Amino acid sequence: VQLQASGGGLVQAGGSLRLSCTASGRTLNGYGTGWFRQAPGKEREFVAATSRNGGSTWYADSVKGRFTVSRDNAKNTVYLQMNSLKPEDTADYYCAAGRVILSTVRDYKAYDYWGQGTQVTVSS
Question: Are 124 and 13 a contacting pair, CB within 8 Å?
Fold first, then answer.
């Protein structure tokens, strides 16, 4: 599975962005998907994830209520809608896919396939 992330950019605090992650080479239907981010000098951290059919979602506490993860299996695409952005949301954002289980959705090591990252910068 090849993943291509897009939608990053520069936005002012309080603004919104929508990230997209499109898969090729294989359908995403059989995979859980997640979004992670990594700021300069920091470790990669979990942001959000969705189950194979999109029926279940999980969020980091830091983004809960502001970010929404969704997927459209017909389009082989996963989305991350980010609202009320804060400067601390500044990071490279990565989408990932894998045959994850419930206990590992927040663990980046559980994902097998990764996109190239898209940069999000939130100015104060």
Answer: yes
Distance of CA 82 to the CA centre of its chain: 10
Task: Give the pLDDT of residue 29.
Answer: 87
**Longest Cα separation, the chain:** 40
What is the rounded CA–CA span in Å between residue 97 and residue 108? 10
Each residue of 22-35: pLDDT tens digit? 999 888 988 999 99
Residue with tokens 């859980």: 32
Query: Tokens 């999980």 identify what position?
Result: 58
The letter for the amino acid at 82 is M
User: How many CA atoms, within 13 angstroms, populate the side-chain half-sphere of residue 32?
Assistant: 22
Q: How far apart are the first and last CA of the chain?
A: 37
Tokens 């959705």 sit on residue: 105
What would the two tokens of residue 94 be?
Answer: 């990565």
CA 117 to chain centre: 10
